[in-house]
Design goal:
The chain has 393 residues and is an alpha/beta fold. Helices cover 35% and strands 22% of the residues. The two termini are 38 Å apart. The relative contact order is 0.16.
Length: 393
């Protein structure tokens, strides 16, 4: 940390999401935005001028020249691990956008670099933007599971089809939905959140059977539809389906345990609570079809806690200052990425895949697709997308 307790911070990648980072950084008195970096020079200059910050076009130059404490990363996915690793060599705390990387091999190296850098820079923070962990319905569901209200978990089924995106969205930003520029579709861009929640609530599966459809409804290279079957060591099974073409879509999550079924349907949370364990009942009942008695309860989850991206940013700053726990440590982002890579690898190879998947096998499949990708990198980008409408869904 620099002499004062104000955190000197910069953001790399100041498009749509980078703009949101800047809003939350500048709203927090514990931070001072001193620089921004974007390969789009006009954008970097414009944003820097608006914030009275210095513009850079190469993050390495910024790390060398500026006296920084921390950086947030909001570039396209491939660059997340590399920029984080460069930051660690300068002892900078990092808040990375999701996903932690495109493939586990690169992301794992960033996590290892962070661990190694902590020897020289104790307390070095590496956080990831998983703002859905602040959402009150998910927090309540996790608390209920942890308190044992569901008992033995039997099935988790997530229909995440409210990630609707138009062709205009994909066309807006040349890196989007290309193998070379983005590295994946709905699983890698939208579903890091959903898969993170899946593993946060009920754990990481040990085996995955997946199927993805590439450009099924949109004119894109990557997947706009993904479906998976998860097997867990504890016997639970999981289903997962996500798509960016269903309108209206739905966010429906069912977690079934021996003590009942917890259902999130949009924002409504319901618990069908058994008065005896359904598994005990099926063993002991002296009748053929009668189910365990249950009651249906509407679950109130609004405890007034703040939610959203700003909470992740605020906790990141607090963690730097006094070790306050993060909303999500970046290393936890390896789990959702491993699940995402496993679904893709399973689909590409037509086989059941272990989690984490074989890193080299996944990279080889990705490289085959990158080789024929239409994406050609250039600095100028389209106007940034305003994501506010997406978060209000
Ligand atoms: N957490 C969320 O809710 C959320 C929402 C949207 C996007 N995101 C994530 O934010 C990231 C950025 O997405 P976006 O929609 O803002 O994209 P964008 O295209 O609007 O912005 C990306 C910016 O990064 C710049 N850039 C590219 N490579 C760079 C590099 N090496 N160094 C510096 N700048 C570079 C581009 O010029 C562009 O200005 C993605 O990882 C995306 O998944 C997160």
């Amino acid at each position: 940390m620099s002499e004062s307790t104000t955190i000197r911070i910069a953001t790399v990648g100041v498009g749509g999401m980078g703009g949101a980072h800047l809003k939350h950084i500048t709203a927090n008195k514990k931070a001072k935005l001193v620089a921004v970096c974007d390969v789009d020079k006009a954008r970097a200059d414009d944003v820097a001028a608006k914030h009275g910050a210095t513009a850079y076009y190469d993050h390495r130059e910024m790390f060398k020249k500026e006296k920084l404490d921390a950086v947030t990363i909001a570039t396209p996915h491939y660059d997340h691990p590399g920029i984080a690793m460069d930051a660690f060599t300068h002892g900078l705390h990092v808040l990375s956008e999701k996903p932690i990387g495109v493939y586990v091999k690169a992301a794992r190296k960033a996590v290892e670099a962070h661990e190694a850098a902590k020897a020289k820079y104790p307390g070095l923070v590496y956080a990831i933007m998983f703002q859905e962990r602040t959402y009150l319905h998910y927090r309540k569901m996790k608390a209920m599971i942890q308190a044992g209200e569901l008992g033995r978990l039997m099935r988790t089924t997530w229909i995440a089809t409210d990630w609707f995106r138009t062709q205009w969205y994909y066309d807006h930003g040349d890196w989007r939905a290309t193998w070379k520029g983005e590295g994946g579709g709905v699983l890698l861009n939208q579903c890091p959140h959903t898969l993170d929640m899946f593993q946060w609530l009920v754990g990481v599966p040990s085996k995955v059977t997946g199927h993805v459809s590439l450009g099924k409804y949109h004119d894109i290279e990557v997947e706009d539809e993904a479906t998976a079957f998860f097997e867990y060591d504890n016997g639970m099974i999981g289903h997962f389906t996500a798509i960016t073409a269903e309108s209206p879509g739905i966010n429906r999550l069912e977690i079934v345990g021996e003590n009942g079924r917890l259902v999130l349907d949009g924002k409504a949370l319901t618990f069908h609570r058994n008065s005896v364990s359904g598994l005990k009942h099926l063993r002991e009942a002296a009748s053929s079809f009668e189910r365990a008695p249950f009651v249906t309860e509407t679950v109130d989850y609004d405890d007034g806690q703040p939610t959203g991206h700003h909470v992740v940013v605020d906790k990141f700053l607090d963690a730097i200052l006094d070790g306050t726990p993060l909303i999500a440590e970046a290393k936890e982002g390896l789990n959702s990425l491993a699940m995402s890579n496993a679904i893709m690898l399973s689909s590409f190879t037509g086989t059941k895949v272990s989690v984490p998947p074989d890193e080299d096998a996944f990279k080889a499949e990705l490289d085959k697709r990158i080789a024929t990708s239409k994406f050609r990198k250039h600095a100028a980008t389209a106007a940034a997308i305003d994501f506010d409408a997406s978060w209000k869904k």
